[in-house]
Every structure is written in C-alpha cells, then in structure tokens.
Amino acid sequence: MGDNMGAPKQIKHALLVCLAAISISAIASDEIYWMNSWEAGCYENNTNTCRKDWYSIPQGSHLIKWEVFNTIETENSQELFSERESLTDYGYLYPEATAYSSETEVYDGRAGERVEQYVSEYGLPIGFVKDKSQLDGRNYLGLTCAACHTGKVTYGDSTYYVEGGQANADLFTFLEKLQNALQANKNDPEKLARFKTRFAQYTLSNIDLTAWPVNVFSAERYLDESLEYVSDYVATTHSSIENGPMRLDAIGAILNKLHFGHTNQDISEAPLLTAPVTYPYIWDATSLECIQTNCVGFDPLTRNTGEVLGVFGSINLDEDENIPDILELVGQQLGLNTLFDASPKVDNLVELEVAINRAHSPKWPASFPPLNSNLASQGKTVYAAQCASCHMDVSDGVDEYELSEPNSIGRQFTKVVRVPYYEVGTDEAFAVDYGMRTDKTGILGSVLAQKSPDTVDPATGLTFGEQVPETFSSLALLGVSTQVAVSNHEGTIAFAIQAAQAYPELSLEDAKAALHLENIAGHTDRPQFVPTNYRAKPLNGIAFTGPFLHNGSVRTLKDLLEAPENRPTSFLIGSTDYDVEGAGYVDGGSFLLDTTIRGNGKEGHSYGTQLSSDDKAALLEYMKSL
C-alpha cells in the first residue's frame, strides 16, 4: 500500500524534472539559475539547508553599525546607500524577485535550480548579513564568504550564479564610496538632520531585544564611529595598483589590518598594497592539501579565521608597552585583560566550511552551445600529457597517485603542486612583496617563543627561544594570530560542553582534541611551505573562473594557451557576459586592466603554448568540460 501511495508523488517528481529539462533552453531573462549542483542530502522539504546556511550564517565581520548602514544616504543624493540601486553598482548580487514554487519546480540538488529568495535577507545583496558581535553584543553589517565567492555568468537570455566562484565585485571602491557617504551625512546639515530622523524611526521600529540597546539620541556618535572605522580601513588598503572588479588584494589588506589596524600602529605607515589577485574559487577546498595563492593556508579553520580578520573582523593585539609580554600573556590566560579578544565566530566558520564543501563545481550548462565530446575526449589525452602533473585531474574521481602522503593521523588530501614563482614565470608581486614581507613581532613574537621556541629567525639564525626578533615573516605572524583566536575559543566552557556532547564516550580532554580534529577536517600537519611559491590546484570548473592566472591578467583560457607575448596587453573587465569560444568573460566592462603594470603582468605559465592548433582546440574543449 505504501508503494502505491508513493507512486503519484514519484510521477509528479518525474514530470517536473521533464518540464525543467524542456524549459532550460528557454530561460527567461529575468530568471536566475544556479550553475552548481549540491549533495542530495542537503535537501529537506524542497529546501537546500546547506545552501541556506552558506548564505545566512554570520562569521564575525563587523563593518559598521547595522542601524547606521540602513539609514545613511548616498554621497550625492537622498537615496539610501543600502538600496539595491546603490549596491549593484559595486557588483554585488541579488536573488531574483519572484519566489520559486514547490508546485512547479523541483529542488533536489541538480544544477540549474532557480535562485531562491532565502539566500538574501533584509533586501540586501547575497553575502550581506546582520552580524551580532560576540564582543559588544551590538548588531553590525557583516559580509560572509558568499559576498566575494558568488559569480555571475550571462549568455543570451540565460543568467547563472556560480557558487564558490569569483564575484564581479569591487570591494575597495565600495568602501571608498561608503566612506564618502558617511562623510557627506556628517558634513551636510540637511543630510545629517534627515539621517538623525531616519535613524530614530528605524531603530524604534526594528528593536532587537537580543542585542545591546541602541540609543536613538546617539545617532551622530554612531555615525562618527562608523566613519572613523571605514576611513581607517580605507587607509590600510591604499594601493599602488587599482584592483577593479573581480580582483582583491586580500592578503595585503589582511596583513596591513593585522599589523597596523589591530596593533594601534600609525596606519599612515602601512605599506601600499601591490598584488591584487582574483577571488579564488573555493569548491572542494577542504579536500585540498593546501589553499590560497601560495598555499599559506592548510587547515580550513585558521584559514577562515584569517579571512575574517581581514574582512572587518578584529583581534586585540594592542599590547601595553609598560607591562612585560610574559605578564600580559599570563593576565590574558587568567582573564585579567582583553588581549586576543577576537570577533571571528569559530563555530560558525566550521558550519560555513561544512556547507560549501557539499557544493559541487559548476558544469557547462545545457543552455550553452553543446561541447564536442569527441574533441573533448582528445583534449583529455592532451591534458594528461601537458597539465596533469601540476593540476590533478579529479573529473573522474581522485586516484591514489593524486593524493598526498598520509599525515600523522592517516588522512590524505588532493595534491596541490607548489612551484617557485621564478619557475612558473608569472607576475612576481604577490610572491615577493608578501612572501618576503616582515613586520614587527610584538606580542605575537612572545606567543611564538612560548609555543614554538625552536622557530628560527632566518635573519639572525637564532631561535625564538633564544631571542625574539623585532621583525619576522608577516605571513607567519598572521598564522600565529589565527591560531591564538582558535585556541582561545577552544579554551572556553562552551567549547568543552560542545565537545562533551559530541563525544560522550571520551574523556573531556580527548573529546576536545577530537572536536578540534573534526573542525580542522583532519589537516593536522602543515605541508612544506615556501611563501614565494605559487600553487597549482585541480581545474574542475575552471571555465567559469576567469580572468585567469592568480592576478586575473589573462582574459580567457584560449588566451592562456598563447605565448605570453601574444596575449592581450590590456582588456576590459566587469562584464558578466560569457565568451563561449574562448572560455572566459567577454572584453567588456568599466575597468581597463593594463598588464604592463607590475602586479598585473600576463607573463609566464607558458605550458601548452607550443601545442599545435588542433591540440590547443582539443585541450580547450576538455577544460570547458571539467
């Protein structure tokens, strides 16, 4: 009887799938579809709970007070800065206006599902969230990973969002315009009066009893605090090279924020940023041996904590110079000071990583011109001979030879090959300027001396146990700060309770160790790290991650197979229209990328450039299919 009762439901499901397949070639121009598929286990009652988590969970990113963001006007009009017409100018994405219907649409994990409205709240772009601080209990505008890792691809009447991909966003321009808007609301008496009225009305009609109370009579003070924070942030991200859309000098921004903004050093002394990179695609990141441009990150928890510290998060590194470091550290461990108090929400970062890890890389959509399967098959052979020694081909699963050696607990990960920048020949700015950068050790040097006293300072040959150097590798110090933030979280009562509940059969210490291991996804041992190397990871989904090379200096995959001197010297970026022939975005948009500028160089990665035209065509077709 149960089987007969389920038959109508199964028939309805099959009919809906058929309707979806028939209609995919006629997608309406006002409808937006996902290019990625997800694990079927993410779906409950026609809702992708993993996707919902990915787009809604805050991570401890606090840009400005929530009430201020929702009530300030743009610099040159009375329109609100937070309105869609304003924020789309910076490349941020919105779900479509029409909600999907569970009666006519199937949601079961396949690519091509329509973008749900629940991926955005409060009428804000995808990745913009209300984030209540765990430090002061106030609500802030925060950004999640999705703001910078959701791409958009348009072809004809088809519009797709690429999850875990590269946003067409221009974060630094957004911040500069936000700073200008805040300044205008402060300086213009009429704007200020309207802001105060609007702030009071908004606050009184949106009371959040779970957050620290907002004083409606302190609107101007909140405005001043927001202006000060954004101005300081903009000051730490001054660049010698314009980033534009699709690119961000994220590591440089994190290092400046960490070593100047969080230590209360003079921000005007922070070095200019010199090495923008394209937003990296992050599907399958947890399964990789290491990640980020030079493999500086290897476990997901400390990597994501560092990301939050650069994207409007905070950690207190402002030590008291009148107190010896050892006493400050003892005081911190006893809870007598606020040293190392940090905003990243570690548990949430774990949830975010788990969620996006269940998304699959994007596939060539059915609404695009079909690929030539015979040509792609030939290309697979070319790829195996020309590319697979560096970029593991995981399109047919991960073979044993594509895995790293087992680590101390027997875990293996997909190999990520690291190549010295001077061998791959691509632009040196990132590897040299950030791989070799040093900053003042400060209190982090004392932490390193306690935790890893055998660490050697290459400048003197002495260990930290013998002498804490005044300056040290900026990237190493970043790693110390993220480890401190995670370690402090794992020392809380809340973490102990969580561990005991997760592993009731273990002793408390063993349960905490097991939960830590789970949170870092088994990444116990750092692979050999050379900060001036560039990494080569698997290329599944690569066709929808342009522009290419780490700095976005090559527009299409077709261009990448040309000798460096024959690649375009300049091209426009910012358009989301797709070049199906070349595999990349079209030459269009508002930002001209000049590859003759250091940091934008198109040189290097000459692999495959000597192939015959037939082999190049086959290889290109295969890379489109990955």
Explained architecture:
α2 packs across α12 and α18 packs across α19. The N terminus is likely disordered. With 626 residues, the chain is α+β, with helices and mostly antiparallel strands. It is built from 21 helices and 17 strands. The radius of gyration is 25 Å and the shape is globular. Among the domains are: 98 residues, no CATH class; 143 residues, no CATH class. The strands form eight sheets. Strands 1-7-6 form a three-stranded mixed sheet. It is 36% helix and 9% strand.
Specify the overall morphology.
globular
The portion of residues forming beta strands comes to 5-15%
Structural class by helix and strand composition: alpha+beta
Report helical residue fraction: 25-40%
Q: What is the distance, rounded to the nearest whole angstrom, between the alpha carbons of the first and last residues?
A: 44 Å
* Integer-rounded radius of gyration: 25 Å
